[in-house]
Design brief:
97 residues; mainly alpha; 4 helices
Length: 97
């Protein structure tokens, strides 16, 4: 159990309806992770819409797309990063549930 060093902060957390600081921290961490997941899923959705394929299809058809090489490379890196972040944040979310 996490006990805060600041009793006033602990009182504020409890006055907001949380059992204790550990419950508060867990809920806040879940909320932030869900926000991050939603953000990166949104990025993935933008790339899927832009290229009309999922990431694997993008890799397989990379040279078929009309965008400049630099744009495709940047999009591919950003897309890959977004997928990685979704996986990382989903794993962390499962760990704290």
């Amino acid at each position: 159990m996490v006990a805060l060093q600041n009793p006033v902060l602990e009182q504020v957390i409890q006055s907001l309806g949380f059992k204790d600081s550990e419950t508060f921290l867990k809920i806040q961490a879940q909320s932030l992770l869900l926000q991050k997941i939603a953000y990166y899923r949104g990025r993935i959705d933008l790339f899927v819409k832009k290229y009309g394929v999922e990431y694997d299809g993008f890799l397989n058809r990379f040279n078929d797309f009309s965008q400049s090489m630099i744009e495709k490379e940047n999009d591919g890196q950003d897309w890959d990063d977004a997928i990685d972040f979704v996986n990382i944040y989903e794993q962390r979310l499962q760990e704290i549930l």
